[in-house]
Each structure stands twice: as structure tokens, then as C-alpha cells.
Specification:
One of its GO terms (molecular function) is DNA binding. By secondary structure, this protein is an all-alpha fold. The protein contains seven helices and no strands. The chain folds into two domains: 34 residues; 69 residues, 434 Repressor (Amino-terminal Domain) (Orthogonal Bundle).
Length: 114
């Protein structure tokens, strides 16, 4: 059965705006819950801007974590020269190497591929 209701345009616009506000609040609540659960993290603007400017994601996340190339290489089980070559763009790194580096930085592989 198709029931229809006719309401003034002003009321329709008010209801639509309220629905959009509710959707925004629900998105905010999900984001805050993910932060509280540790599933997401906030990245300071200076680091986000470096990523947006095209700097090596490996270098940016390494700096964010306060690690040297040598420390990161040791934690990931790769050679320090490999870290340097990936950061400078001389090499791309294998999937296995990038996965190990991502794990050592506690980021996703996608974060390093940006």
C-alpha cells in the first residue's frame, strides 16, 4: 500500500536538515569511538601536510614515530640502506619489505603506498 503525506516545503527542508545533522553526529560518534578503541589515530597537521605535499610516507611516519632509519630497519628486520632508498624514491621496496616496515611503524600497507 502506498501512503503519501503532504507537508509544507519548509517542514520538509527542516526535516531533511535534521536528518543530515543526525548523520553527521553519527559519523562523529563512530570516529571518536574508533579513536578511543585505538583503531584510528590523529596525525598532527605538520605530518599530514608533509604527506599531502608528496613527501615519502615512510619518512613521514618514521619521523612521526620518532625513529631513526637504523631503528626502523632493525624493528622491521630490513637493511637500513633499504629504508633510505625507499624514502628517497630510489627503490620501491618489495611487498614483503613494505609490509614489515608498516608493521614496525604500526600503520597499514596502504598508508605507506600513498
Amino acid at each position: 500500500m502506498n501512503e503519501m503525506v503532504t507537508i509544507p516545503r519548509e517542514e520538509y527542508d527542516r526535516l531533511r536538515a535534521a536528518a543530515e545533522d543526525l548523520a553527521d553526529l553519527q559519523s562523529y560518534d563512530r570516529a571518536m569511538a574508533a579513536l578511543a578503541a585505538g583503531a584510528e589515530e590523529l596525525i598532527p597537521a605538520v605530518y599530514a601536510n608533509r604527506l599531502l605535499d608528496g613527501e615519502s610516507p615512510l619518512r613521514v611516519y618514521r619521523d612521526l614515530r620518532g625513529l631513526t632509519q637504523a631503528t626502523l630497519a632493525e624493528r622491521a628486520g630490513v637493511n637500513r640502506v633499504t629504508v633510505a632508498e625507499i624514502e628517497t624514491g630510489r627503490k620501491q621496496g618489495s611487498v614483503a619489505t613494505l609490509r614489515a616496515l608498516a608493521g614496525a611503524l604500526d600503520v597499514t600497507l596502504d598508508d605507506l603506498m600513498a
